């Protein structure tokens, strides 16, 4: 059974069509990466699937129901979203920020229960951020902050987690740290992870399923061996890529590339 899919999804900003009739099934309990050039509609698609922005046509279906008609709190108990630019957490401690993940479960009084506290501590432990619980979020490094935001998403106790470019502005070690954490959550807890990534080799290494987009449409969706191919990358990124095999993972590896100077439609 596929829990999450879209049918002919269309999204517009003003009179400009950004996402053009996308139909795709998101594999359950797998890691999905969405790739494509800047401005192709990746983030817009992600926001519409998580109901952060409305769509103009088509539908997003989760557990058999159109998300546009689902209760907001109930939906927030099924999916969490970590946007590309997080809202300011100025003055908040790490523990306070992570506690916001419990909002979908709180009653009108808004008080944390014993279970809420246990989940918050668990999320901090899983992301290796327990030692920062009483520190200001502002005082943390980029990699530490990103793990704290992921802890907040985990505290939401959802089966599906969406992340928009979770490695942006991080150095190589912190990028790897974040991606390995997400992979661990998928393998050990069967969380469905859907994320926008810019790095092709990171997508190939960590994703089970890749969606390649161009100009608001899907060029190819499938396992990494089907998507990380020279002809697909030529269409999506306008590059002529040399693809090899990663000796450590056995996954496709973009060894080098040049700008494609021919007809980009081929």
UniProtKB/TrEMBL annotation:
Q: Please provide one cellular component term from the Gene Ontology annotations of this protein.
A: plasma membrane
Q: How does it sit in the membrane?
A: Peripheral membrane protein
Where is this chain's protein located in or outside the cell? Cell membrane
Domain (ABC transporter) spans 4-240
Keywords recorded for this protein, A-Z: ATP-binding, Cell membrane, Hydrolase, Ion transport, Iron, Iron transport, Membrane, Nucleotide-binding, Transport
**Coiled-coil boundaries:** none
Name the major location: membrane
The superkingdom of the source organism is Bacteria
* Gene Ontology MF term list: ATP binding; ATP hydrolysis activity
Does this entry carry the keyword Membrane?
yes
Protein name per UniProt: Ferrichrome ABC superfamily ATP binding cassette transporter, ABC protein
| Species the sequence originates in | Sporosarcina newyorkensis 2681
Gene name linked to the record: fhuC2
């Amino acid at each position: 059974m596929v829990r999450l899919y879209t049918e002919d999804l269309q999204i517009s900003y003003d009179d400009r069509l950004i996402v053009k009739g996308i139909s795709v099934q998101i594999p359950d309990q797998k890691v999905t990466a969405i790739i494509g050039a800047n401005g192709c509609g990746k983030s817009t698609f992600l926001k519409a699937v998580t109901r952060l922005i409305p769509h103009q046509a088509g539908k997003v279906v989760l557990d058999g129901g159109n998300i546009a008609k689902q209760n907001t709190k109930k939906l927030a108990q099924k999916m969490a979203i970590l946007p590309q630019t997080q809202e300011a957490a100025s003055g908040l401690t790490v523990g306070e920020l992570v506690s916001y993940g419990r909002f979908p479960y709180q009653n009108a009084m808004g008080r944390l229960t014993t279970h809420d506290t246990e989940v918050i501590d668990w999320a901090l432990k899983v992301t290796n951020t327990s030692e920062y619980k009483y520190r200001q979020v502002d005082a943390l490094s980029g990699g530490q902050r990103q793990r704290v935001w992921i802890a907040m998403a985990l505290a939401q106790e959802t089966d599906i987690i969406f992340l928009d470019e979770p490695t942006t502005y991080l150095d190589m070690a912190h990028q790897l740290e974040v991606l390995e954490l997400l992979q661990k959550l998928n393998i050990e807890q069967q969380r469905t992870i859907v994320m926008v990534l810019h790095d092709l080799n990171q997508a190939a290494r960590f994703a089970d399923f890749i969606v390649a987009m161009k100009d608001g449409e899907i060029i190819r969706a499938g396992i990494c061996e089907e998507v990380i191919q020279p002809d697909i990358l030529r269409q999506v990124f306008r590059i002529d890529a040399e693809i090899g095999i990663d000796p450590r993972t056995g996954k496709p590896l973009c060894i080098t590339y040049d700008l494609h100077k021919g007809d980009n439609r081929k």
